[in-house]
Design a protein that fits this description.
Blueprint: E1 4-8, H1 19-31, E2 38-42, E3 52-54, H2 70-74, H3 83-95, E4 101-103, H4 110-119, E5 127-130, H5 138-147, E6 156-162, H6 180-195, H7 198-202, H8 204-207, H9 211-214, H10 223-231, E7 237-241, E8 244-245, E9 249-250, E10 253-256
Parallel strand pairs: 1-6, 2-5, 2-6, 3-4
Antiparallel strand pairs: 1-10, 7-10, 8-9
Length: 257
């Protein structure tokens, strides 16, 4: 089956400054046995009240950030959508008891198009986003990923795009030493994934070191559970990057197979 991917998409500047993580994503995409027929991706930058699925045939590129250089706003990622696949995604979610609605107007946010630029720069692989519902927690997001697991048998690449740590209140700029808590939290997560301890991960708020500091709000952590659900029990994580940017932004990325 096609592997499942978890990516930390970092700051919007990741689009122009790929670093170690961008190169790792490019290498992963080039190393796939076959180019995916489509990508289904969850990002924390689309959080409606209810489960939703992008159904546009040609989603626009959303620059959902401010205060950056003009070059960043000139970037476009004109990948086609996948309306037929979107209908199948809605059906699979319904089969799992999750009622989702289609959204034909939703554009691709930077949590989706920035990492995809490093993976499929020609923007030829069809893409659709699955929203992260506002009230969903780790178990609910895991269930969404698990509901779509069968798409891997149809050469669909399922991606959870978030951030292994995401405390922007501690943003310190480039070149500063890495905060120890970012490493301690990230390595705890890696150890639980390696052990297959999903119960510990679901309860990370109480069990993980520095969980509140690593994620003052958990929106950027939840796409991890979409990837874990799509990977399923027994899948093995193969890390692509453990880079830390700006002293506190852990850029862990891995695939599950």
């Amino acid at each position: 089956m096609t592997p499942v991917l978890y990516v930390s998409h970092g700051a919007p500047l990741f689009a122009l400054e790929p670093g170690i993580s961008g190169a790792a994503l490019q290498s992963f995409a080039q190393g796939l046995a076959a180019r995916p027929k489509a990508v289904v991706i969850m990002s924390p930058h689309w959080m409606p009240r209810n489960p939703s699925v992008m159904t546009s045939a040609q989603p626009a590129t959303l620059h959902d950030f401010g205060g950056f250089s003009d070059a960043l706003y000139q970037l476009q990622y004109p990948a086609p959508g996948a309306p037929a696949l979107a209908a199948r995604v809605i059906e699979l979610l319904a089969n799992a008891g999750i009622t989702a609605q289609g959204d034909a107007q939703r554009p691709l946010d930077h949590g989706a198009w920035v990492p995809l630029m490093h993976m499929f720069a020609d923007a030829q692989v069809p893409v659709l986003q699955v929203a992260l519902p506002q009230r969903a927690g780790p178990r609910e997001v895991y269930a969404m990923g698990a509901a779509l697991q069968s798409l891997r048998e149809q050469d669909v690449l399922l991606i959870g795009s978030g951030g292994m740590t995401h405390n922007l209140g501690e943003f310190a700029g480039p070149g500063v030493p890495t905060a120890p808590y970012a490493l301690e939290f990230s390595r705890w997560v890696e150890a639980q994934i390696a052990a297959g301890d999903i119960e510990a991960l679901w309860d990370y708020r109480q069990r993980a070191p520095h969980a509140q500091r690593a994620h003052p709000s958990e929106d950027h952590f939840l796409p991890l559970f979409f990837a874990l659900g799509a990977g399923g029990p027994g899948s093995q994580a193969h890390y692509l990057s453990r880079e830390v940017l700006y002293g506190m932004l852990a850029m862990d990325s891995f695939y599950l197979q």
